[in-house]
Specification:
This protein is an alpha/beta fold. It is built from eleven helices and eleven strands. Helix 6 links the parallel strand 10 and strand 11. Helix 3 packs across helix 4, helix 5 runs parallel beside helix 6 and helix 7 packs across helix 8. It is globular, with a radius of gyration of 19 Å. The N and C termini lie far apart (40 Å). The relative contact order is 0.14.
Length: 358
């Protein structure tokens, strides 16, 4: 299946996957137009490089992400199915333009949506099925119970939760084993350390940080980040106006750390990443792995990209080591970030637990 083999991690409930996955929202037009062949080429490259965790959702491109992943399993590629772990999600409904959404977590909706996902993926099961957002009108026990029924029926192998509070994680785990919890987590978004990660450890789940590069802000493109509509970045407060300018100033500190690690390698600052220069994205991902070890949490971050070259760059973070002083400087940044991490904080564990930006 792949040209390389990556290290693996056991998340929870016996689910083993690679220590870095691929955020397949990037296979849709969320961050600007992408044609089908570009999306397919990027996905193929991720798998060829050894990435086995592919993270999608029914809402990504109205099913386009799932349909692109299905091409891996078509024809002679059917043997690939047992070599990858495919995650999808249920619960968010698009009800208008960008950022206009609602949530459903009732049993009937969960059961309805899994069949559409399986058809689009061209498979008889998903390895990990997340409740995409917690429905405030439906007890989490009902939603997780419905997914547990799908596990019994063989349509789902493992259960995940996206953006739950610490209390909701514990309640869900009383119904069925939780394999993974997915929440935004990065140098710029650390609220999950207060309540979510302790609960993840308590119930024996793994953790899947999404937006580990802060939707492109924590990359070498930070100076020229494009947040114009219809790019999904347009709806995030910290990526626009005065907030963006403040936050770009903080990325400079991350870039300074990247330059330090590059010099320590004996590599010229002007060298390409492929020649050993350390990038902002690699520092951001290396920070995540360091924090996971510190906090005793098993993780598989899912950076998304539309470029095969960025796949290689992100995987290069596995070889980046940050020293204690560098980690200390990076740890200080989240408290200085301007703007919430979500357009609607009430949709996140951060907002519902009454936490600030860090």
């Amino acid at each position: 299946m792949s040209e390389q083999t990556l290290p693996t991690v056991e998340l929870g409930d016996g689910l083993t996957t690679t220590v870095q996955g691929y955020g397949a929202m990037s296979l849709s037009d969320a961050y600007g137009a992408i044609d089908d062949e570009q999306a397919w080429h990027t996905l193929q490259h991720a798998v060829a490089q050894g990435v086995t965790y592919l993270d999608s959702a029914n809402i990504y491109g109205d099913g386009r992400s799932e349909r692109t992943i299905s091409r891996l399993f078509a024809g002679a590629g059917a043997r690939v199915r047992d070599s990858v772990q495919v995650a999808s999600k249920v619960g968010i409904l698009r009800v208008g333009g960008a950022g206009s959404r609602s949530v459903r977590g009732d049993r009937a909706y969960v059961r309805e949506q899994i069949d559409g996902t399986l058809v689009r993926l061209g498979t008889d099961h998903v390895d990990l099925y997340y409740q995409h957002r917690v429905d405030p009108e439906v007890p989490i026990e009902e939603t997780v119970g419905a997914i547990a029924e799908l596990v019994t029926e063989g349509k789902v192998r493992h259960i995940g939760l996206s953006e739950p509070t610490g209390d909701e994680i514990r309640r869900a785990a009383q119904v069925a084993p939780i394999a993974a919890v997915q929440t935004e987590y990065s140098i710029f978004a650390r609220d999950v350390e207060h309540f979510v990660l302790p609960a993840v450890r308590e119930v024996g789940a793994g953790f899947v940080p999404y937006s580990p590069l802060s939707r492109g802000l924590l990359t070498d493109d930070w100076r020229t980040l494009d947040n114009a509509a219809p790019n999904v970045r347009a709806i995030f407060p910290r990526l626009g106006g005065e907030n963006l300018a403040i936050n770009q100033g903080l990325v400079q500190i991350v870039a300074d750390v990247a330059a330090e690690v590059t010099r320590a390698r004996g590599v010229e600052a002007s060298a390409p990443v492929s020649a050993g220069r350390v990038s902002v994205a690699q520092v951001a991902l290396a920070w995540l792995y360091a924090k996971a070890r510190e906090l005793d949490v098993r993780i598989s971050p899912i950076p998304g990209t539309r470029s095969p070259e960025r796949i290689d760059e992100n995987l290069g973070a596995l070889d980046v080591v940050l020293d204690a002083d560098q980690l200390r400087r990076l740890d200080a940044l989240a408290a200085q970030v301007a703007g919430p991490r979500s357009a609607n904080p009430g949709w996140t564990s951060q907002g519902r637990e009454g936490l600030g930006n860090d």
